[in-house]
Specification:
Length: 245
């Protein structure tokens, strides 16, 4: 799992598709995502996700010949804050990020206060499995664009800017975690330095969350567990390649 540090002296480059505009770039963040500017491991991620993670996020096939039934995606947010006003602004901005990839709120439970916990659902508009995963990966990529890559299209720019606004608003929230279907977007703060994690999770990572549902309320341990799982699977994959499997 690669970790990228933001270079405060430079801005992400944009292509013509981004009309010369830069994504907003929050300061003092480190970033961990499921890919990098060279898109290494992207095929590995897609292979691990397609047809596997979808059954955990409310998508099912009755049989191979039947129509795929697409349900709304379950989502959960945990914020390490008791400031309701700050939490509600975060929630509003988070929904705006989802709207940039055509996922909109359909149902929500009242928020739980103390820290701030919110469970809600977003509609999939009868998207196929691959269409949903593509949209989740656009959000993951939108986080990457804040730090290490160039904007390829106006759609990417819109998502990246929405995420930039969301991250800028989290300066007073030391930790947060959010799960949209199989997409984990989280932040923790270590020795005053913020660290962001964004990845469309693999089956193994989703299994960890299913077995430990309260882990999402502990962003520090959550990020460590997800990184360890990814590293283990990559190591196993490398061994298999060396063995010619």
């Amino acid at each position: 799992m690669e970790i990228k540090k933001e270079n405060s002296t430079s801005k992400p480059k944009t292509s013509n598709g981004g009309r010369g505009r830069n994504p907003r770039t929050p300061k003092n963040f480190r970033i961990t995502t499921g890919g990098n500017s060279n898109q290494r491991n992207r095929s590995w991620i897609i292979k691990r996700i397609l047809g596997r993670a979808t059954r955990v996020i409310g998508i099912k096939d009755e049989n191979e010949n039947s129509k795929v039934i697409i349900n709304d995606l379950p989502c959960e947010i945990y914020l390490d804050t008791d400031n309701v006003e700050v939490a509600e602004i975060f929630y509003k901005n988070f929904l705006n990020v989802l709207k940039t990839v055509d996922l909109e709120l359909t149902k929500e439970y009242p928020s739980i206060k103390g820290s701030w916990i919110k469970k809600f659902w977003v509609g999939t508009k009868n998207f196929s499995k691959s269409e949903i995963l593509t949209r989740l990966e656009k959000i993951e990529r939108g986080v990457e664009l804040q730090y290490i890559d160039k904007v390829q299209s106006e759609v990417d720019l819109n998502t990246a800017n929405a995420i930039g606004i969301l991250l800028a608003q989290t300066k007073d929230i030391p930790q947060f975690s959010s799960l949209v279907g199989s997409l984990l977007f989280a932040k923790t703060t270590i020795n005053g330095e913020s660290r962001i994690f964004a990845q469309t999770l693999t089956q193994d990572q989703l299994a960890i969350l299913k077995e430990n549902p309260t882990l999402i309320h502990n962003p520090f341990n959550l990020i460590i567990k997800m990184e360890e799982s990814k590293a283990n699977v990559l190591a196993e994959s490398s061994v298999k390649k060396l063995e010619g499997e």
